[in-house]
Amino acid sequence: MTNPLTRSRPRPQARPLALLLLACHPAQPADTDTTTTTTTDTTATETTASTSSPTSSTSSTSTTTAAPFCGDGVQDPGEECDDGQNNADNATCTASCFLNVCGDGLLLSSVEECDDGQKNADNAACTASCFLNVCGDGLLLTSVEECDDGQKNADNAACTASCRLAFCGDGLLWDAAEACDDPDPAAGCQDCSLLPLTVFVSSAEFKGKLPPLQDLQGLPLADAHCQLLAASAGLSGAYMAWLSDASQGPSSRFLLPQASPRPFVLTNGATLAQSWTSLTQGPLLLPIDTDEAAQNVGSSSVWTNTTPQGDPASQDAHCSAWSSSDFKLNGRIGAATETDPNWTNFAPSQCSNSARIYCFQVAF
Ligand SMILES: [Ca+2]
Ligand SMILES: [Ca+2]
Ligand SMILES: [Ca+2]
Ligand SMILES: [Ca+2]
Question: Which ligand has an atom closest to residue 183 CA?
């Protein structure tokens, strides 16, 4: 810094003098002007140096010290700024008296998050606006982010909250494309589709008092009969009976079928309802007249005491909670060949009669 200052010292002195001399000889021809000026300039410089009083010499030295330079706190020609001692490469005015801008490779603290100079780009670590490229800014950071949809990023969207492309098997439910995404076999999810639930009418017929199994009674005993029949036909999963006593029925007992909109199919694969809602609103797409072995049972009575909505149809027509075959008691039945509400709520029948039961898969 010392040398440039020293070299520039004579110039501020010479220029005013040359201008003065030019002003004193305005009529001089142009062709002699250069020579005269040069000669006079030299003389004047020498004269000034040799004849100046101590006072004027001091004044001249003072002017030279204030000569412009980057860092003097004054914006001079050629400088975009000059904040004096505050000039710094991480400040508004750089150490070279340039304004710190995005793209100069100099990090302006508290304004720029980054500045990689010419490497700034919206697909790079430092964006063209000098922000760090983060997941959620809508700018795809190549080789780090698989996607970035900005505020649309979400674990249920095409681009997840962590900037990964959604896919079947990532354990995240992509609303627009997946019905489910759960590797747990108990979830009944395959290839991100909800597995259907199997429904059949029992091949066996029972009187109002269901044959004993273990120590079970009432609805759990009926469930056990369904489970036994399903297992005998090689059907996997858990089964319960579409049957009600005075207080409980499928709507309060079939939890998984109501938790997800999965279809119900017969053992021959045909769909009888697209979901619990369509099952209970009716009508059925097909009658439930196929047994666990995919055999059609034809016209049959089926113990139910259940409305199409899955609730108890009556407070007393349930053969004493399916523990009595007394002919003086009734149990309500459905008709296996029907698709309207009669499929489950058709008429009372004496408990001494025999009828089938409907069995529904309720878990995987
Ligand atoms: Ca300056
Ligand atoms: Ca910068
Ligand atoms: Ca991003
Ligand atoms: Ca998924």
Answer: 4
